[in-house]
Structure formats: structure tokens, C-alpha cells
Design brief:
The chain has a 6-stranded antiparallel sheet, with no helix packed on it. The radius of gyration is 36 Å and the shape is flat. It is built from 11 helices and 6 strands. It is α+β, with helices and mostly antiparallel strands. This is LptF/LptG family permease. It comes from Mucilaginibacter jinjuensis. Pfam families: LptF_LptG. It is found in: Cell membrane.
Length: about 475
């Protein structure tokens, strides 16, 4: 390896690692801000949150990797240009394209690694992430009793506490309403104060209440329609509530495995082919079902030698009486309604299945577009850094974010168009790459020819000459 190639690689690796982890951290914070209400206050163990964050980070690689390649390439060549190292490289007779060779090899390796990651590791990470996130969002809140409101966390009970003590366990002004539908009775308990605590194995929540009264309504004995009302006074009593429903229950991951994000290329191809075969066989069966309704018009479309078909007389209804005409019209209307209902239901089913096929093709194409995006954004970042000649996290960040937003917006619009069926998957999923690649080639040409594309002085001189000519 030549020293100049080693210099460029060292200049690229460090900002790439730094920017990659910065982008991953920002995306992880966005994930936490989005789902903070579903995670906080549910009594999760610390490793559950850590596991969810790890899987969320894996799913963010598809967005973080292209942005990191773009930003680090701008920073690398911008820093080389700012320190006049690119000038020294060119003065030694080495062109910019030749100086980009080691970077092209590294980015190609990253692109291949991204493809392998998206095909083998990303489906597993998506399966773990979405299944764990589903279970976490379905988990009941760990704050079982709040002040001043009726808490319905426990089935069949409504608990209200006026206020809690500073320790969070002492309760004042407790009311417990219990509804027992099986025994057809209701009971209300009032207590001036109490203490709550959990059993050592977190199986029960115990409320130890003091100085209270309990009112209970129950059905009469021996079928008596009159209800029985009972009142109890107590100095101390206990109420136990089962906490088994508040523990995290994991759903079987096989229930999520049929989602497209959890499939690799082989599974996506199998799903698409099998579903398409089902659609084709469904169309053939639809034609056979509907052909029975066309019993008045099932003439042969191809002419047969020696046979002639008389045209149908449009005035044949005039020869019938009024009752026959009504019967014919009603029969025709019933046939039309039957065909309409049959076609409508099967058409809705066909649209849903076609949408599923398009979604599977979108996930199939995403495996390749991630690698292509890394290469396309590198073709933009490297020459752009050589042109603007600015390193660090200032101007390169602004330029990188602008181009990445262009890529992200175009790809998002293309993906939505494919889902709606207005664009073919090959066009919709690759349109962002097709737009950015010519821009990268243009910038590479400008950087190789030492263009002053972003030099404001050259533009000022140009406009000054134009205005002077107009004045003359």
C-alpha cells in the first residue's frame, strides 16, 4: 500500500467511526423520545430496556450508514483540501480519481457488508425488536395507585387514594370499589389510612388498611328478589391483589415472522412467487365463476367456417306483453347485481393481495438499495469535499444533511408510490439512486478539473462583467 493511500484511509476511518456513532446516537434518542411513554413506569428490568435499545440501533443502520459515508467523505476530502494536502497530491502527478481508489475500495467493502447485514442480520434484529416492542407497549403500567384518581389496573376493582405519604407507601383516604359479577354483589371499602407493599417474589400487592368500614350488597337467599345490605367495621384488614398480569409476557416470535421486514431474500422470493401463483389461479377461477352468468352472450369470438350468426334483434322486447317484459328486466337486474357483488368482493381481495406483493418487492429491493446508496452518496461526498475544502463538523454537516434529505425524501416518495401501485417497484425504489448518481459524476468531473463551483468570488466577477456590459 502506498503511503498516500494509507494517509487517505487514516483520514477517512476516524471521522467515519465518529459520525456513524453520532448518527446512531441521535436516531436512538429519537426512538426513546417516540416510545418514552410506553417504556417508563412499567417496572421493566434494566436489561429489557438495554436489549430493546440494542435491537433499535440495529434497525437504524439502514439510515445511519449512508449518512455516515456521505458526511465522513466530505470531511475527509474537505480537510485534505483545507490543509493543502490535495494540492500536494496533485503536484506530485496523482489525479483526484487515482487518490480516490482506496476510498472506493473501502466504500465498496462497506456496501457489500451492508448487503450481507440487511439480508442475514437485519431480519433477525427486526423480529427481536418488533416483538419485544409489542410486548413492552402491551405491558400494564407499574404505577398501580395514583393520587386523586380511580385506578382500574386490577380487574374488578377501582381504587382511589386521596394522597400518599412522602415514602410513597403510606396511604390516606382509601376507597376500594369491588364488583363481583359471578356472585352478583358489590362492595365498597373506606379506610382512613393504610400501607402498601409487595410480597418478596413480587407476586402480590398487599394493602394493610386501618380504621375503616365496608359496605356490601348481595342477592337475597333462596331466590328472594330483595337484596341484602351488610356493613362491617374494622380496625385493621388486608387486601391482596395479584401482580402476575403486570409482569412482561413474551409473545411467540413466530407470530411476527410473516412480516416482510423479518424475511431475507430467499423468503421474500418464495412469498412473492407463491402469492403471485395464488393470484393467477384466483383470476382463472373468477373467470370460470363469472362465465356462468353470461348465458345469454356466450357466443364464440372466433368465426367458424360454414356458420353464420344472426344479429340479435334489439326490438325483441316489443313483441312481449308488459308482464313478460318486467320479468325479463328483473331477471337481467338480478344477474347484474350478482355479477357486481361477486366482482366487488373478489376485486377487493385482489387489491389487498397485490398490495402485499408490492410490499414484499419493496423489502426485496431495499436489500440492494442500501449498498447502492452508500456508493452513490460517496460519489457525491468525496468530490464535494474536495471542492468546498472545508473540514470539521461545520459546513460539511450542513451540506451532507441537505443531500441526505434529498435522497431520503425522493426514496420515501418513491416507496409510497410503489405501495399505492402508481409506480413499478424497479423505478420507485431506485429513483433516488438514479437522481443522485449523475450528480455525483458531475461533481467528480468538476473536482477533477479544479472547478470553482462553490467559489463566490468567481460568481461575483461573472455577474459584474454581465452588469458592465449591460451598462455599456
Amino acid at each position: 500500500m502506498k503511503k498516500i493511500h494509507l494517509l487517505i484511509l487514516k483520514s477517512f476511518i476516524r471521522p467515519f467511526i465518529v459520525t456513524f456513532f453520532i448518527v446512531m446516537f441521535v436516531l436512538l434518542m429519537l426512538f426513546l423520545f417516540k416510545y418514552i411513554d410506553d417504556l417508563i413506569g412499567k417496572g421493566f428490568e434494566w436489561y429489557i430496556i438495554l436489549e430493546l435499545m440494542m435491537y433499535a440501533s440495529a434497525t437504524n443502520v439502514a439510515m445511519a450508514l449512508p449518512l455516515s459515508v456521505l458526511l465522513s467523505s466530505i470531511m475527509t476530502y474537505g480537510s485534505l483540501g483545507e490543509n493543502y494536502e490535495l494540492v500536494a497530491i496533485k503536484s506530485a502527478g496523482i489525479s483526484l480519481r487515482r487518490a480516490m481508489y482506496p476510498m472506493i475500495i473501502v466504500v465498496t467493502i462497506l456496501a457489500v457488508s451492508a448487503f450481507i447485514f440487511s439480508d442475514y442480520m437485519l431480519p433477525v434484529a427486526n423480529l427481536k425488536y418488533y416483538s419485544l416492542l409489542w410486548d413492552a407497549r402491551q405491558q400494564k403500567s407499574g404505577f398501580l395507585i395514583k393520587e386523586g384518581v380511580f385506578n382500574n389496573s386490577f380487574p374488578g376493582y377501582s381504587i382511589r387514594v386521596d394522597h400518599k405519604g412522602e415514602d410513597g407507601q403510606t396511604l390516606h383516604g382509601v376507597m376500594i370499589y369491588e364488583r363481583n359479577a359471578a356472585q352478583n354483589n358489590n362492595s365498597v371499602l373506606f379506610a382512613k389510612q393504610g400501607v402498601m407493599y409487595r410480597t418478596p417474589n413480587d407476586q402480590y400487592l398487599v394493602l394493610k388498611l386501618k380504621d375503616g368500614i365496608r359496605y356490601e350488597e348481595s342477592a337475597g337467599d333462596n331466590g328472594n328478589a330483595r337484596q341484602r345490605f351488610t356493613r362491617f367495621r374494622f380496625e385493621q384488614t388486608e387486601q391482596k391483589f395479584d401482580l402476575s398480569g403486570f409482569k412482561l409476557k413474551r409473545t411467540n416470535e413466530s407470530e411476527f415472522s410473516r412480516a416482510y421486514q423479518m424475511m431475507n431474500l430467499k423468503q421474500l422470493r418464495f412469498f412473492r412467487d407463491s402469492t403471485q401463483n395464488a393470484v393467477d389461479s384466483g383470476l382463472r377461477s373468477n373467470f370460470r365463476l363469472m362465465s356462468a352468468y353470461y348465458k345469454y352472450f356466450n357466443f364464440s369470438h372466433k368465426p367458424v367456417k360454414g356458420k353464420t350468426y344472426e344479429p340479435v334483434n334489439p326490438d325483441y322486447l316489443k313483441k312481449m306483453d308488459i308482464y313478460a317484459k318486467l320479468s325479463v328486466v328483473n331477471n337481467a337486474a338480478n344477474e347484474a347485481r350478482s355479477i357486481k357483488d361477486l366482482v366487488k368482493g373478489r376485486n377487493d381481495r385482489y387489491k389487498e393481495v397485490s398490495k402485499d406483493i408490492r410490499k414484499s418487492i419493496i423489502e426485496y429491493q431495499k436489500k440492494f438499495t442500501l449498498s447502492a446508496a452508500c456508493l452513490a452518496l460517496f460519489l457525491i461526498g468525496a468530490p464535494l469535499g474536495a471542492i468546498i475544502r472545508k473540514g470539521g463538523l461545520g459546513l460539511p454537516v450542513v451540506v451532507a444533511v441537505i443531500f441526505f434529505l434529498i435522497y431520503y425524501i425522493i426514496s420515501t416518495i418513491g416507496e409510497k408510490s410503489v405501495k399505492e401501485g402508481s409506480l413499478s417497484p424497479a423505478i420507485g425504489m431506485w429513483i433516488a439512486i438514479a437522481v443522485l448518481t449523475p450528480i455525483g459524476m458531475f461533481l467528480s468531473y468538476k473536482a477533477a478539473t479544479d472547478s470553482v463551483l462553490f467559489d463566490m468570488d468567481s460568481y461575483k466577477k461573472f455577474f459584474n462583467k454581465v452588469f458592465k456590459r449591460k451598462a455599456a
